[in-house]
Structures are given as structure tokens and as C-alpha cells.
Amino acid sequence: MCESTELNMTFHLFIVALAGAGAAVIAMVHYLMVLSANWAYVKDACRMQKYEDIKSKEEQELHDIHSTRSKERLNAYT
């Protein structure tokens, strides 16, 4: 029984299955790393969009204030 070809083939199939399981684990770890990187990118992009919106509103308010003061100055001279 110990010298049969089926037992020898079983050992080789076990090694192949073990290598396949290792490759599957590596693929899952890679997937989780990519998923977390994409999540961080999206989160950062969301924060950057909020910052750009606030910055744009503040610039618009400053422009409005400046244009109002300029109109007041022009009206004061006339």
C-alpha cells in the first residue's frame, strides 16, 4: 500500500492544493489592501470637495463685500 502510485499522486495533489490555498489567501489580502486604499481615496476626495465648496463660498462673499464697498465709494463721490 505504501508503494502504490495513488499514494504518491495524493501527496502531489496535496501540495498543489496547499499552493492554491496560499495563492487564494494572498489574493484576498491584496483585495483588502486595494479596497482600503480606494476607501481612503474616496474619503479624502469627499473632504477636498467640501473644502473647495467652502473656499468658493468665502471667495464669493469677499467679492460681494468688495463690490458693495466699491459701489458705496462711487456713490459717496457723486
Question: What does this molecule look like?
Answer:
It comes from Molossus molossus (Pallas' mastiff bat). The chain crosses the membrane at residues 12-41. It is found in: Cell projection, Dendritic spine; Cell projection, Filopodium; Membrane. By secondary structure, the protein is mostly helical. It has one domain. Helix content is 94%, strand content 0%. It is built from 1 helix and no strands. The protein has one helix spanning 5-77. The radius of gyration is 34 Å and the shape is rod-shaped. The termini are far apart. The model has no long low-confidence stretch (mean pLDDT 87).
By secondary-structure content and strand pairing, the structural class works out as: mainly alpha
* Average pLDDT, all residues: 87
Q: How much β-strand is present in the residues?
A: under 5%
**What characterizes the major β-sheet?**
none
Total of domains: 1
Pfam families: Myelin_PLP
Protein name: Neuronal membrane glycoprotein M6-a
Keywords: Membrane, Transmembrane, Transmembrane helix
GO biological process, one term: neuron projection development
Give a short summary of the structure.
The protein is mainly α. It has one helix at residues 5-77. The chain contains 1 helix and no strands.
Question: How are the SSEs ordered, and which strands pair?
Answer:
Layout: H1 5-77
Quickly list its features.
single chain, mainly alpha, 94% helix, 78 residues
